[in-house]
Write a structure and sequence with these properties.
Aspartate Aminotransferase, domain 1; 2 domains; globular; binds pyridoxal-5'-phosphate
């Protein structure tokens, strides 16, 4: 490494926060020079096969010519204009696409800057919806009386344990209160109702008992619950668990029964990762509000979307405020929308389902058998996600270094080594990822 790189890294270490990283004793960061297809090239010249898709987002691979062109062409027209009072084709086309691709009846779109903000927006929508509904009377025909429902009492949220929805305040409040990384803020966070996490796995036989506690909370507290939020099928950061589609179906039914809005956080799962375009398709259901992010621009720019039904949008707009009370500066950024449009078109013109199927097949043949390794307690695969759960937590400082030495970029946490490569990954590249994992499993220093 030349001096310049050393200086850059020294400055980085002294002055720049990294995600969930100490400022006084940070683990080393690696200086990246460039990235292409599935390969990240470090400033030192080392080439790493990427198993992370930069946290789920880079689905088409790095430095994609089609996405590059979309970005350059849009930048020649305008990089940004405010979205208040102005609009533009990239945003309109993107919203047309999102409405046509997501399950009905989602037909109104709010664009924002990141996954956490998309969740924040979803929660605000649900709360503002019920405040706007106020007190409503419904006739009970047989008795010729009116029953009154005070919807303004619906100010709380319901979620399940092991969830992760982001780092802003409302999003933090619905993360797992213990493992969700935000325990330190416990005293200031709003307290939602927490049901136990789903336990029946994706491929296991379904048992109704799995929603027993959840049903009880709905029955007892629905008068005060505005929305139920969950990651569909894959609980990501909270444990990389794949739960049963029937669980999601039951959630939809409970939300309908008790007049609770159903928010699905498809930020990690959206756009194909699980083998369906959206994970809720496994259960053949649709939410009232859906959050998208990460894959939306295929790793190019930060952009997120919150979709809702016409009824939610109408109710909010007919309420006292007369509008939805949110409006970020970079809302509908044209560069991000243009890349998102190009990414969606790319997805539609490639056989992504075949690619995901091939990755899943490769993982089933080569990753699942690692369960017999003495250091492994479980392996699981869904679509282009492969997970290895280990007996001991990883030693991050050591394992990260070893993975880099072995030519891969994999970033485990706790007892989880997981990979979700770009959809264009080749079998030879998957082989390198799995070989590296197999090697470190036998290295004591990589575990605590
Ligand atoms: C399911 C889910 N929701 C929300 C978020 C937050 O997204 P962002 O990091 O873009 O704010 C994440 C990020 O990992 C996520 O996995």
């Amino acid at each position: 490494m030349n001096n310049n790189c050393t200086d850059l890294l020294a400055f980085d270490r002294q002055h720049i926060w990294h995600p969930y990283t100490s400022m006084t004793n940070p683990l080393p960061s690696y200086l990246v020079e460039s990235a292409e297809n599935v390969t990240i090239t470090l400033a030192t010249g080392e080439k790493l096969i990427d198993g992370m898709s930069s946290w789920w987002s880079v689905i088409h691979g790095y430095n994609h010519p089609v996405l590059n062109e979309a970005l350059v062409e849009q930048s020649k027209k305008m990089s940004h204009v405010m979205f208040g009072g102005l609009t533009h084709k990239p945003a309109i086309e993107l919203c047309q696409q999102l409405i046509s691709l997501t399950p009905e009846p989602l037909e109104k779109v709010f664009l924002s800057d990141s996954g956490s903000v998309a969740v924040e927006v979803a929660i605000k929508m649900a709360l503002q919806y019920f405040q706007s509904k106020k007190i409503q009377s419904t006739k009970v025909p047989s008795k010729k009386v009116q029953s009154k429902t005070d919807f303004t009492k619906k100010t709380k949220l319901l979620t399940v344990r092991n969830g992760y929805h982001g780092d802003t305040f409302a999003a933090m409040s619905v993360c797992d209160p213990v493992t969700g990384m935000h325990q330190i803020f416990d005293k200031v966070l709003n307290k939602p109702y927490f049901a136990p996490a789903p336990t029946i796995k994706f491929n296991e036989d379904w048992q109704e008992d799995d929603v027993k506690e959840l049903s009880k909370i709905f029955a007892e507290h629905h008068h005060e619950i505005a929305a139920f939020i969950i990651e569909p099928i894959v609980q990501g950061t909270g444990g990389m668990n794949f739960y049963h589609p029937e669980y999601l179906k039951a959630c939809r039914q409970l939300c309908d029964k008790y007049d609770v809005l159903f928010i699905l956080d498809e930020i990690a799962t959206g756009f194909g990762r699980t083998g369906k375009l959206f994970a809720c398709e496994w259960a053949d259901i649709s939410p009232d509000i859906m959050c998208l992010g990460k894959t939306l621009t295929a790793g190019y720019l930060t952009l997120a979307a919150t979709l809702c039904t016409d009824e939610i949008a109408q109710t909010i707009s007919d309420g006292d405020a007369g509008c939805f009370m949110h409006g970020p500066t970079y809302m509908g950024n044209p560069l991000a929308c243009a890349v998102a449009n190009a990414s969606i078109k790319l997805l539609q013109t490639t056989d992504w389902q075949k690619n995901i199927g091939e990755i899943e097949h490769y993982f089933s043949e080569n990753l699942l058998p690692l369960v017999s390794h003495p250091r492994v307690t479980d392996t699981r695969v869904l679509g282009a996600i492969g997970v290895i759960e280990t007996t001991q937590a990883v030693n991050m400082a050591h394992i990260q270094k070893r993975f880099v030495e072995l030519g891969v970029w994999i970033r485990p946490f706790g007892k989880l080594i997981y990979i979700m490569p770009p959809y264009i990954v080749k079998p030879s590249e998957l082989a390198i990822l799995l070989k590296a994992i197999t090697i470190i499993l036998s290295e004591d220093e990589c575990f605590i």
